[in-house]
Every structure is written in C-alpha cells, then in structure tokens.
Amino acid sequence: MLRFKKLKKVFIIAEAGVNHNGSFNLARQMIDAAYDVGADAVKFQSFKADNIVTKHAKKATYQIANAGAKESHYQMIQRLELKDSDFRKLAVHAKKRKILFLSSPFDKESVDLLDDIGIAAFKLASGEITNMPLIEYIAQKRRPIILSTGMSDLKEIKAAIDLIKHKGTRDIALLHCVTDYPAQPEDINLKVILTLKDRFKLPVGFSDHTLGITVSIAAVALGAKMIEKHFTLDRKLCGPDHRVSLEPAQFKELVLAVRQTEAALGSGIKKLTPNEEKIKKLVRRSIVAKTGIPPRIRISEEMLDIKRPGIGIQPKYLNRVIGKITKKQIPEDALIKFEDLR
Fold it and tell me: What is the tens place of the pLDDT at every residue in 119-155?
C-alpha cells in the first residue's frame, strides 16, 4: 500500500481516467505508455453508469465541447465503462510493468472490486467529497485515500477527513484541485496548497487541469508532494478529457521537469557545493603586491592591491597587513603571505 508520509519523491500520477474510450486494449496501451514516460502510477476510473448518473442528467459544457452533444450524459458514461474483468487484467498488467495501478471508484460495487484487486490506495474524485455514504464505505476498507478537493470549501474538506479518520483510515493525502476543463492559471490559487498543509497537517499534492506543465512545476516548487495530470495517447481522440490531457511526449517532459524541480529545491541549508568550493578559489580575491616591495620595508596601503585568485590573504584582513615589515623581497603581483611579514 502507499504510505504518503513516507514518499521520498514527488509522486506522479498519469490520470488515464476514461481516456481509454471504453477499450480494454487502449487502456492496456496507456499503462505501457505511462510506464515508458516515467509516471509512478497510472490511474483509471471505476464505475457502473446505472449507479452514478440518471438517464436524464445533462452533460457539462466541457463534455459537450469535447465529446459532442449527440449522446446523453448517461450514454457517454455507459460507453466509457470497462468490465470488472478488464480492471483485473489491467491491474495484473500494471504489476508486470512495475507501475502502480490506481483507480477512482464512484460506487460501492467498484469499491469492492478495487479492494478485492488489492488497490494500493483509493482516489476519491472531487465530485464525491460530500458523498458521505461512499466515503464511509471506502474508509471502512482501511486503505490509504487520496482526497481531491475541487469544488469544495474547507468545511467540506474537514467533514470528509473527519469521517475517513472516524472509520479507521489515517493514511490520507489531499489534492488541491480546480474542477474546470481546462482550468485557467489565474483561477488555480496554488497557495491553497500551503493552506491545506497548514490546516490539516496532511501531505498535499495538486491535481492539474490546466493546459501544459507550467502550473504543475510551480506546485512542486511550492511543496506539492503529489502531481496528478490527465494522460492520453492522442489528444485528437473523441472523449470528455482528451483535449485537456498530455500526450506521452509532453508527459515525459512533465516528469523530467518535476524531478529537476524537486532536486533543485534541496534541503534549505545554505552551504557551498563542491564545485563552488573550487570556483571560490578562482573568483574571490587576495591581497597582492601592487609593485615590487623590497625587504625591511613597512607596508603602506599604496603598495597593495586586491586581485584574483582567492588563495591568499583575504581582503578583509587588509588592515592587518598594512604597517607590517617585509622579511624578503615581494615581487609585483605576488600574493602577500603572513609568513613573509613581521
């Protein structure tokens, strides 16, 4: 199982969601592609259309724009269903490819299926954050839970967390999220990551619905411990989420950028790197003889200059050199040494 507080690096989830378009073969290919681009996990959505949407429910505007208005919301969801046997095979395939298999359940049947498969963690989608019966049912399975917080306020988030903990699940991660497709950067409010972390004392990540990878990278720089990003094999495919998803080449760029960003964050301790130690000797300055200085001469400031390299007496000790008597001839441009003075 996942242990969120023990994660040693940013956990990157390739959100396959329903971008398989109801095809097992396409879903299987997505697992291979997610592994190839370096994602830590590939996540799907598990549901039964009859359990989650009425036959008369309307589509969201973005769903109409991306998938057309010909079919109803129910028909679209039904078309995007995978069979229970498909999920079992996909989980086995992900294990063989050494990538973590995750899925968001939207009904109790799907919760039971994923629990039986041995899912490493449940992902609770933003739309379910007030679905207390489903949250309670998931929490009773005592598996780690990733809780997405799109479309919610702090009071609703707290209520969900309290219920999860009350039912015995303590391993919880939160995902800051703005539920819009695509979400606009000016609406993202990434500083909420800090708010959630401070308020709930839990690991916090970011579920990114913006276009491109810039906002995800900013989230990592701000301290996000998990990044979830929609993933597709082809953005031109027909479906509700393809157009806001990353294709493999761009997702690979995301993974690389996340790894570079978290490496760049470092420990916060100000110290020199080994290369800085080497360069410091070259670019810092030392006290040198401005002209040739004879022996037994009292040194004045006019006889000295401050030049590279920085392997001699540091400029901050200039007043300790002025007034000293030379023991020997010091050539022009030579480093001043305390052993040559008295």
Answer: 999 999 999 999 999 999 999 999 999 999 999 999 9
Tell me whether strands 286-289 and 304-307 are parallel, antiparallel or unpaired.
antiparallel
Number of CB atoms found within 10 A of residue 17's CB: 23
Judgement on whether residues 89 and 165 belong to the same structural domain of the protein? yes
- Provide the number of structural domains found in the chain: 2
What domain range includes position 285?
274-340
Q: Are 259 and 37 in contact (CB under 8 A)?
A: no
pLDDT tens, residue by residue, 27-42: 999 999 999 999 999 9
Assign 29 to helix, strand or coil: helix
d(CA 19, CA 27): 8
pTM over 0.85: yes
Q: What is the 3-state secondary structure (H, E, C) of 103-164?
A: EEECCHHHHHHHHHHCCCCEEECHHHCCCHHHHHHHHCCCCCEEEECCCCCHHHHHHHHHHH
